[in-house]
Prior knowledge:
The complex is a heterotrimer of chains A (about 325), B (about 325) and C (about 475).
Chain A: H1 2-29, H2 36-44, H3 58-67, H4 80-91, E1 101-105, E2 118-120, H5 126-132, H6 148-152, E3 158-161, E4 166-169, H7 179-183, E5 189-193, E6 200-203, H8 211-217, H9 227-231, E7 237-240, E8 243-246, H10 256-260, E9 266-269, H11 277-302, H12 309-325
Antiparallel strand pairs in A: 1-5, 3-4, 6-9, 7-8
Helix pairs in contact in A: 2-3, 2-4, 11-12
Chain B: E1 4-6, H1 18-40, H2 42-66, H3 77-87, H4 95-110, H5 123-134, H6 136-140, E2 142-143, E3 155-156, H7 159-168, H8 173-180, H9 184-188, H10 201-213, H11 220-239, H12 247-252, H13 256-263, H14 274-294, H15 301-318
Antiparallel strand pairs in B: 2-3
Helix pairs in contact in B: 1-3, 1-10, 2-3, 2-4, 3-4, 3-5, 4-5, 5-15, 7-8, 10-13, 11-13, 11-14, 14-15
Chain C: E1 24-26, E2 32-36, E3 46-47, E4 54-55, E5 60-63, E6 72-73, E7 78-87, E8 93-101, H1 124-133, H2 146-149, E9 160-165, H3 174-181, H4 183-196, E10 202-207, H5 211-224, E11 229-234, H6 243-251, E12 266-270, H7 271-282, E13 289-295, E14 303-308, H8 313-320, E15 327-332, E16 339-340, E17 354-359, H9 360-363, H10 376-380, H11 387-395, H12 399-404, H13 415-419, H14 426-462
Parallel strand pairs in C: 1-14, 9-10, 9-12, 10-11, 13-17
Antiparallel strand pairs in C: 2-8, 3-5, 4-7, 5-6, 7-8, 13-14, 15-16, 15-17
Helix pairs in contact in C: 1-7, 3-5, 4-7, 11-14
Amino acid sequence: MVNIIIWTIAVVTVLGLLLALILYLVAKKFKVEEDPRIDEVEKVMPGANCGGCGFAGCRAFAEAAVKAPNLDNNYCPVGGNDTMAQVAAILGYEVKAKAPQVAVVRCNGTCQARPKVNSYDGFSSCAVKATLYAGDTGCSYGCLGCGDCVAACQFGALSMDPQTGLPVVDEEKCTACGACTKACPKHIIEIRPKGPRGMREFVSCVNKDKGPVAKKACANACIGCGICAKTCTHDAITVEGNVAYIDPAKCKLCRECEAMCPTGAIHGVNFPKPLDKENIKSRIKLRQQKAAEAASASASLRDPVRANAPAEAVSVAKVKEEKKDE
Amino acid sequence: MSQLIVSPSPHIHSKDSTRSLMLDVVIALVPAVLCSFVFYGWREMLVMAVSVASCVLLEWAITKYLLKKPSTIGDLSAVITGILLALNVPYTTPWWVIVIGAVVAIGVAKMTFGGLGQNIWNPALVGRVFLLVSFPTYMTTWSQPQGLFGADAVTGATPLGAIQEGLMQGATVQDIMAEHGYNYSQMLFANLGGSAGEVCALALLAGFVYLCIRKVIKPWITLSILCTVALTSLVFWGVNPARFTDPLFNLLTGGLILGACFMATDYVTSPMSTWGGVVFGVGIGLLTVLIRYFGSYPEGVSFAILIMNSLVPLINMGFKQKKFGRK
Amino acid sequence: MSKHTFSIGGVHPHDNKMSRECRIEPLPLAPTVYISVAQHIGAPAVPVVAVGDKVKVGQVIAEPGGFVSAFIHSSVSGTVKSIGPRADLSGRPSTHIEIAVEGDEWLETIDTSDTLVTEIPADNKAILDKIRMGGVVGLGGATFPTHVKLSPPPGSKCERVIINGCECEPYLTSDFRTLLEKGEQVVVGAAILKQVMGGVPCTIAIEENKPEAIAHIREVIGKLGFSGIEVMEMKMMYPQGGEKQLIDAVMGRQVGSGALPISVGAVVQNVATALAVYDAVQKNKPIVDNSVTITGQCAPKQANLLVRVGTPLRYILDYLGGVPENAAKVISGGPMMGRAVANLDAATVKGTGALLLLTEKETRRAPESHCIRCGKCADACPMGLEPFLLNKLARAKDWDAMEQNAAQDCIECGCCLYSCPAQIPLLDNIRIGKGIVLGNIRARAAAAKAAAEAAKASADAKK
Lengths: 326, 327, 463
């Protein structure tokens, strides 16, 4: 009996030693020399392997970052500036801080505003639906509501709101990796700068139909009327193909366009106070009158006969009256 | 017309549904079930009732309370598992043993993999083999059929069991068969000891023909099993008829027909392509004969099917459909 | 003669030819027609009329926008009201020419009489030109410009012209009625196609469920005395009318993946296309109308109507008594491959062969359940694919694996989804994958071409 135990122990021990030796030799022979910094960089990466940086995964990003002469073309949108600062520290590069970004859904065709006109009965996927036809609402540009973006999001930052039938972005969780923008067949999701304290203005519609058509399909559609572009004093709004677009780089968050938009297609989020439409409207009116007066004044300089001083008094009085009414 | 429905093509669907296919299998099993009632009487009815009820209830409970998903008992697959399990155990089995079998079949072999379509092994067979290994006393106490209103059962051995026992005692196959008075017409029309489903080959074959006519299954798996068993045993029997049983005996005993017609042809656990099915069937046939002749269990169909079930993913990889216009 | 069919897969839906006894009747003119400039595969046509122009029936209103493109003719006489975007049957905007109908004045060059012209012009080039000018496109569904199909690339040789009269889709009867009522014209059209392809043998393939048509066409061929044209009786099987399947069934040859039928020496044209060829060549009549089957269990009336191109669908249905209350789906085409109509105000195009009305019970999909690995989809697939596998790969977005498993070969016949007992939307997902795989293949080919050109350019520069 004792013999058996001793023999067992001996055999197992020898076997173990032998295998260890083989493993050691193999590991030695097939060792791959690698820049140790790749491992270090990979360690500070978020590890989501989402591909938002344009590489296959975090490891691929680390390899590229170590190889690259600087970090200008390599940026991890998920980790953001913190991660990039760490990466830069490891590699001894400099990195420019980027403004944090977030995914923005540019459709506000809620179930109420955009009634269904037919009943879709295929596989519940935006890609399938978009390949088949224009969609089950009158708007052929808007959200299809099957949630391909939700499925594409690895961070759980997107969810469908059953009330509106539209996806909602959780700003805390969104890393701006851009997976949802690629998944959306209608291209309604845009990665935009988060803005100061999260405040931002955007046109929540991409409908390129002419005004009446768009309006018929959806009460909240941008009808391309151009009022916002005329109102904007910062030259931030362009209207192309019957739809307005606010350039986040130029927008000064004055919210004038939002107040003037006749359909409510322009949305401002995370502002501390609710939008005071009347106040802004009267402010704009005053400014426009002043501009008109300035124009007419300059005209009157050229044509003294048509100088109309009384008009100014009247208009100022009118504005005062309006302010009282509020 | 309120709102038009819009969907990708095709816009119509064949009448087949999972439920209708399963219902066809249940219908195909009816002759065998009726036969077993006639031969074994009320105790077999009890076994059947307990088995079906516990399988269905278990699946319902698991989907509702554990998986928290819509119930899947409507597809009738649990009913089939219940019937097959009942046909695979002796009618003398106590009710609590059957319930344990159902727990293993549905709970372990089916639902842990994700339910119908995801399991690797035929649930009823897993349940049966579990019982065979865990409760050999109950599972090997075979009884002679006594009829619907017959007297108490006379305990005996199945033909396969009797022959194995006899061989171990040094007798020849012919002696044993003569001693027990086995003859083939008796086997074809039941009346031999065995688990309920082993008794009436004709009723089982009728169900098989029904399934083939309804195009629920293709006959190739079943035919290749039966042919392989017949040919292999023919070779052995030809070499030594005193040591090995003859082909016809092998075809008609030990639940081979039940297994070949209803268990091996289970969609989920069999290969999809025709040629894959043939390979699968040949494998089952070979293993069955080898286990019967050389194994320690007298019966090998269950084990053979389970072993080949495990190889199905491999077989599926090996046998792909020929693609149009490609070599 | 034994009945032929293709070698892999196929399904047997109930053929439901409810409108088979209804003669083709002309539909009264709609007050306004909307003629799309994108009625064919390839580049949209370019309008050549202006708002306010007076047009006659058969007048060219849009010219081809590229090599693979087709002429568009006015189907009515009247005034052009507008040219601009209008929603097609899927609700997507595309350019339509709106014409208000005034009278019914045909272009003088068109022979509108019923006399049968059997004399075929000798000049093949002139024939091809007439087919091109007549705006003839494949009316079997793909609407590929016919003159392009009849001009095989150099080096390939046509060995047989196949006229597709299978009409394997359930419900549809317009080809059947055309064969019965315009059999002579179809046979002359077939003879023209045969001559253009170099006098090769010609087979008119008709499925066994149309015995009257088979007998009639055999009689017509005998009466007109064309040699080398035969009728082949086909077994009933869907999708026999698929080009690749039909070639397999008739000639026993399989067109390779991504290859054209001409690679195995076949040219396939639909019965309606043969008729259009006859009209264009013998009568100078371009495609201005086509026969449309209006059918379905809940259809207000079974009918085969001769409909002018551009007629709003709602007008057709209203003519027959309106869309019934219990109709839940209107399909342009057959139930297996037709397109569900999202917009009844859309107008017909050249390729519109049927309007099928289905009730909710007939068409609503049952909820999807787990795959039970029955393999019925693989058995049904006429291309020998494994739809269950492709569906899984498409959901996992593994496009490379889809390409390895030949997703690009899918002909979207719908047999897999039709036969799946678990009602898994196989084709919905495979179609997406197929699109992406085809895109990848094209991108690779383009990249390879660009690389080859760049290499050649650099080699030239070195010289």
